[in-house]
Amino acid sequence: MSGKPKLHYFNGRGRMETIRWLLAAAGVEFEESYLEKKEDLTKLQKDGSLLFQQVPMVEMDGMKLVQTRAIANYISTKYNLYGKDVKERALIDMYVEGMFDLNELLMTYEIQPADKKEQHFANMMYKTENRYFPAFEKVLKDHGKDFLVGNQLSRADVQLLEIILMVEEWKPDIFAKFPLLQSFKARLSNIPTIKKFLQPGSQRKPPSDDDVVDKVMKIFYS
């Protein structure tokens, strides 16, 4: 077995995408094992690989890690993306928890029933523009550095860039109101490991199309 982390999830963004982003930003190569049908999930559940019967699951350093935040915490700590001291870590945690809240809205849009999609989208974009992006714009302004916390790349920067690019897919002109986020996006996208992840052919996943959503519904909700 190779020493690379192995990611178990479906072939789409979902809750695993942040983990892919963090590994890529750290310059860590990883492998993926995709769930293609409900039986693939059942097999992992029955062989004891999933502590809480859920994915994402990452095989790494002799462990089978589950729970998105726990996996992200481990990767961030191991690869020095978690600040230099306990105060920086507290700020990173605070910002990242806000990002997880927003990401939940963005991520669940695609699986909303047709009659709920319009309302969900309006709520999601309203909160993006009036709650979350103003907060991160203010953090960048008050901190006055290239990064959200301290003066080096952290998981907060990586996860914010992930979200910025997702929102931009829906509303490309949103950054007219947020010039610091706009320049943050350009700056972070030029970091070599991130630049590589943003190239075509990387393990970054595209927005989910109807086929992916249909597969997700069959694996997790049938």
Observed structural traits:
4-stranded mixed β-sheet, alpha+beta, 222 residues, single chain
Unreliable runs, pLDDT <50, ≥5 residues? none
Strand order of the largest sheet: 2-1-3-4
Question: How helix-rich are the residues, as a percent range?
Answer: 55-70%
Task: Give the end-to-end Cα distance, rounded to a whole number of Å.
Answer: 33 Å
Mean pLDDT reading: 95
Structural class: alpha+beta
Beta-strand proportion? 5-15%
Number of helices: 9
Total strands: the figure is 4
Main beta-sheet strand count, sense and barrel state: 4 strands, mixed
Q: What's the overall geometry?
A: globular
What's the alpha carbon Rg, rounded to whole Å?
Answer: 18 Å
Task: List the secondary-structure elements in sequence, H or E.
Answer: EHEHEEHHHHHHH
Structural notes for this entry:
With 222 residues, the protein is of the alpha+beta class. It has helices spanning 17-25, 38-46, 68-78, 86-108, 114-143, 155-170, 179-189, 192-197, 210-221; strands at 6-9, 31-34, 57-60, 63-66. It has a 4-stranded mixed sheet with strand order 2-1-3-4, covered by helices on one side. The protein is globular, with a radius of gyration of 18 Å.
